[in-house]
Write a structure and sequence with these properties.
This protein has 381 residues and is of the alpha/beta class. It has 17 helices and 13 strands. The chain has helices at 13-25, 56-60, 62-65, 69-85, 89-92, 105-115, 142-146, 157-165, 188-193, 214-226, 244-252, 268-277, 292-297, 310-313, 328-340, 342-358, 362-380, and strands at 2-6, 29-33, 49-51, 96-99, 120-124, 151-154, 173-175, 201-205, 232-237, 259-263, 280-283, 304-307, 321-323. The strands form two sheets. It has a seven-stranded parallel beta sheet with strand order 3-2-1-4-5-6-7, sandwiched between helices. It has a six-stranded parallel beta sheet with strand order 10-9-8-11-12-13, sandwiched between helices. Helix 4 (69-85) packs parallel to helix 6 (105-115).
Length: 381
């Protein structure tokens, strides 16, 4: 069975790598098609092929253009041309085209039209609300694209129920629970680049976007600092929003020395170093379907504080400390016992680690995914 796994922008490279390796281990011939690798990527294909099929021209201009508007326009034009006129043979000659992300819906529809009827089409819907309403043009028309796929894969009830509510036939939706992941481990250089904490440290990590609620976390921390509680807040990752107001708010409140920032595209090792140095990991998301960041952190055995949005609201009791989504004062109250007690932190961290160890494996996910592929191919035959 030939599988073309598609994630043009490598939005979830660690997820793609884990799934492709597990599928290959069960005998599938897998090619992951993405963009050219960057220094911050940590994909080392095991048993499958990697092809830098997308964004070749725009990625070649990235160093010259930077990450601003000019680069985004170049990427959009590059992808639109590739979808409308580019070589689709690496996809069309597969048995299954499994799309993880559709980075520009108006362009992606052109690619899907060209593939229609030629190959079985599968899409993993990581978020039923494409890009959590932050997308603009990027996600315009995403819902209509879902009807072009033979099967839609989801990780839990939140996404399943949202798709059914959008009119998707439940028979086309298949659950494939998301296993825990492990980022590339921190090197000595990575660990040396992260200042060690001198008081309990909270960590928010990953891409920084409005829906993730980091502003709520900053507000909660300022309130706790003003109340006399001693701890640090570290924010590590690439901003996709203006973070200056949050940083300025901390400085105006007089607590700049308690804020650690590491903004930019960080390597997996660097993110792993931040997790290793943290005492508490915080996921204050306003809304979410499933969180790869959460699942990549469980093995560290650190206490987790989350909102009650999406998958977080469905976690077993005791795995994480939860607060109502969008409520900064409630988040502050949820954080306080962990900040004040090392014993509570140890207990909660052990619960998080145990939960990760009890979850399913990538082998389980690959088995379920291959069964879905086989059923599609049998129906087409």
């Amino acid at each position: 069975m030939k599988v073309a796994m598609v994630d043009p922008s490598l939005f979830t490279g660690r997820y793609d790598d884990s799934l492709c390796a597990a599928l290959a281990d069960q005998g599938a011939q897998v090619t992951l098609l993405g963009r050219p690798m960057r220094a911050t990527d940590a994909i080392v294909p095991q048993g499958y092929r990697y092809s830098p099929h997308f964004f070749r021209r725009s990625e070649a201009l990235r160093d010259r253009l930077g990450e601003g508007r000019a680069f985004r326009l170049a990427k959009a034009a590059d992808h639109a041309i590739a979808c409308a006129l580019g070589d689709l043979r690496p996809l069309a000659t597969a048995d299954i085209v499994h799309v993880q992300w559709l980075p520009l819906a108006p362009a992606d529809q052109l690619m899907l039209k060209r593939l229609a009827g030629r190959v079985a089409l599968v899409h993993t819907v990581h978020n039923a609300d494409a890009y959590h309403a932050d997308a603009g043009l990027q996600g315009r028309g995403y819902r209509a694209l879902l009807d072009r796929f033979d099967a839609l894969l989801v990780h839990g009830d939140t996404t399943h129920d949202a798709l059914v509510g959008q009119g998707v036939d439940p028979a086309r939706i298949h659950r494939t629970p998301h296993p825990p992941m492990r980022l590339a481990p921190a090197s000595a250089t990575d660990l040396a680049a992260v200042p060690p904490p001198v008081v309990p440290r909270l960590l928010f990590f990953g891409t920084i976007r409005p829906y993730k609620g980091v502003d709520l976390l900053v507000d909660a921390c300022i309130a706790l600092w003003r109340a006399g509680h001693r701890f640090e807040l570290a924010i590590a990752g690439k901003p996709f929003m203006n973070v200056a107001p949050m940083v300025d708010a901390v400085a105006r409140a007089g607590f700049a020395d308690r804020l650690v920032t590491d903004f930019g595209f960080l390597t997996e090792g660097r993110l792993d170093a931040h997790m290793a140095c943290a005492d508490i990991l915080v996921f204050p998301y306003r809304h979410i379907d499933s969180s790869g960041a959460f699942l990549s952190a469980l093995h560290h055995g650190k206490p987790m504080v989350t909102s009650d949005a999406g998958m977080f609201g469905q976690l077993p009791d005791g795995v994480a400390v939860r607060a109502p989504a969008g409520n900064a004062p409630a988040l502050a109250q949820a954080l306080l016992p962990l900040i004040e007690s090392a014993a509570i932190r140890r207990d909660q961290g052990a619960r998080a680690r145990a939960y990760g160890e009890d979850m399913g494996s990538w082998r389980d996910m690959a088995t379920r995914t291959i069964d879905i592929y086989k059923a599609l191919l049998a129906a087409r035959a």
